[in-house]
Amino acid sequence: TGPSCSGAGMTLFGVVPLPALALFAFILIAILLILIRRRTTP
């Protein structure tokens, strides 16, 4: 039922599935936003 998210067309370099890449990007952006907020808040 539906396409596989870990198929050959849905991987980066044949290793990293796109959902894992999206999760990594979300976590990285959240960490960067937290760091920026800590530096600018007196």
Structure write-up:
Strands 1-2 form a two-stranded antiparallel ribbon. A hairpin with a 3-residue loop joins strand 1 (11-12) and strand 2 (16-17). It is elongated and about 50 Å long. With 42 residues, the protein is mainly alpha-helical. The chain starts with 10 loop residues before the first strand and ends with a helix. The chain has one domain. The chain has one helix at residues 18-40, and strands at 11-12, 16-17. The model has no long low-confidence stretch (mean pLDDT 85). It contains 1 helix and 2 strands. It is 55% helix and 10% strand. This is Disulfide bond formation protein B. The chain crosses the membrane at residues 12-36. Keywords: Membrane, Transmembrane, Transmembrane helix. It comes from Stutzerimonas kunmingensis.
Uncertain segments are: none
Strand order in the largest sheet: 1-2
Summarize the amount of helix as a percent range. Answer: 40-55%
Kindly give the count of domains. Answer: 1
Rounded to the nearest angstrom, the distance between the terminal CA atoms is 52 Å
The description of the largest β-sheet is: 2 strands, antiparallel
> How many DSSP-defined strands?
2
Count, helices: 1
State the secondary-structure class.
Answer: mainly alpha
Average of pLDDT: 85
The coarse silhouette is elongated
Gyration radius, in Å = 16 Å
- Per DSSP, what share of the residues sits in E-state strands of 2 or more residues? 5-15%
Order of helices and strands: EEH
Protein name: Disulfide bond formation protein B
Keywords: Membrane, Transmembrane, Transmembrane helix
Organism: Stutzerimonas kunmingensis
